[in-house]
Amino acid sequence: MSNLYPTIGLEIHAELLTKSKVFCTCSAEFGGEPNSRCCPVCSGMPGTLPVLNHTAVEYIIRAGYVTNCEISRFTKWDRKNYFYPDLPKAYQISQMPRPVCLNGWVDIVANGQEKRIRVNRIHLEEDAGKLVHDEATRSSLADYNRCGIPLIEMVTEPDFHSAEEVIAYVEKIKLLYKYAGICDCKMEQGSLRCDVNISLAPKDSKELGTRAELKNLNSTKAIARAIEYEIYRQTEIIESGQKVLQETRRFSDSTGETTALRSKEDAHDYRYFPDPDIPPIIFTEEELAEIKAKLPEMPEQRKARYMSEYGIAETDADNIINDKDICDFFEDAIKVYNKPKAVANFILGEFMRRINLGEMSMDSLKFTAKDLARLIELGDTDKINKNNYKTIFVEMIGTGKTPDEVCDELDLWVKDDTSAVEAVIDKLIADNPKPVEQYRAGEQKVFGFFMGQANKALKGQATPNTIKAILEQKLKG
Ligand SMILES: [Zn+2]
Fold it and tell me: Is 32 left (phi over 0), alpha (psi -120 to 50) or beta?
């Protein structure tokens, strides 16, 4: 067993959800025909002037508040110079010495342990374009739609010691950013990307080992695999008496391995200098207080409200807030049918079960929160038998029909027809003399058998209460 101990730091890049780009008015939406969302400013024409998008500034301040950062009262922008085909200006507008946010922290739970991760800084910059490498023609195509989309970069202290801790942190940041309304956090679309710095050293060592930087990991799975591989690779090197090189490495999803991209020797000198086109910002206390007041309700606040106002248990509240889309759906449903506990129970049960089975996803729901609220209301008010929830819900998932339409089509409404219930029960009693005898001899549990059989025969067209009353009366004989 190796006594080497991994130390990991993280950089998270998140694209902000502003309507337009950070220094021009082009759309910042994901996708679009290549190079259809560009103008002279974001495609780097000489002589053009950037104008700062103040919503992007507001959003990075939100990012700072939700991760307990200090907000700089004075902040400014710098040019980071490098040439690459995805960056037509040959410099990126970023922030070096005076980032907007500094010295924050985020609490996570990993492997059952609570832990505080320190945030070093968060700064605002512009995203670069995207290169598409076409193997067939052996050429590279440049799409500048992403050029100039506002990007925040958060840098943590090297406070992580396992892949589990890193994943827990990334998940927590995704949750915080989504609730703050500043990023959609779709890693598969690249709106949230991670760089991981990792080094190994003996557990009692005061100095850190030489680190490798893993670039642009775009799923939590890739992060975990890349860290595991890097721990293995660096352990092999150190234990065979060699030295780990300080380098930037790329992780391949298909091989599960990391390969060297560039070494410390070819590290760029970015020649940062203050951007002369964008004035620095000095925030007043009033401006910051106003931004803080506009922060949407965060997951912990929602959780506290669910527990105190709705009487929802802590684990249930956790399960609802842990997915913002589901949590918003819950909020919408209780606006229509104000029985939070009943709605929560349905969402935590059948609703999440169907998601986990892959039968539905929040991205492509065919029914609305109003439909779900209506379904639960119909059950609560005995308009339908709750045993039919599943049948109706499956129809709603597949067809997008309202619960009323499904009940009409499948004839699932409860009918106040006691004669039909009586007929079914009479037949059951006649067909099952032995259980009847058992019941009359005092075996209460056979009652459940009759309830089940009656329910089945009536296909949910009577409420359990009606069935129970008639059954009790008839079984007495
Ligand atoms: Zn533009």
Answer: left
pTM of the full structure = 0.88
pLDDT band of residue 28 (cuts 50, 70, 90) is very high
Can you list the pairs that 351-357 forms with residues at least 24 positions away whose Cβ atoms lie under 8 Å?
Answer: 351/326, 351/393, 352/319, 352/326, 354/393, 354/394, 354/397, 355/326
* Domain limits, the chain: 4-285, 306-401, 418-476
Q: What b-and-e string marks burial along 320-356, b requiring 16 or more CB atoms within 10 Å of the CB?
A: bbebbebbebbeebbebbebbebbbebbbebbeebbe
Ligand 1 centroid to residue 93 C-alpha, Å: 14
Which two three-digit tokens encode residue 271?
């020649």
| Mean of pLDDT over the chain | 93
What are 385-424's pLDDT values in tens digits? Answer: 888 999 999 999 999 999 999 999 998 898 867 888 888 8
pLDDT at 264: 74
Distance 48 CA to ligand 1 centre (A): 10
When mean pLDDT is compared across 31-45, 197-211, 231-245, 265-279, the lowest value belongs to 265-279
Q: How far is the CA of 127 from the centre of ligand 1 (A)?
A: 12
Higher pLDDT, 419 or 350: 350
> Going by CATH, does the domain composed of 418-476 fall within 1.10.10.410?
yes
Could you report how far apart the first and last alpha carbons of the chain are, in Å? 75
Measured between alpha carbons, how far is residue 298 from residues 61, 81, 191, 275, 321 in Å?
A: 15, 38, 21, 35, 9
Expressed in angstroms and rounded, the spacing between residue 29 Cα and the centre of ligand 1 is 12
Q: How far is the CA of 26 from the centre of ligand 1 (A)?
A: 4
Measured in Å, residue 50 CA sits from the centre of ligand 1 at 9
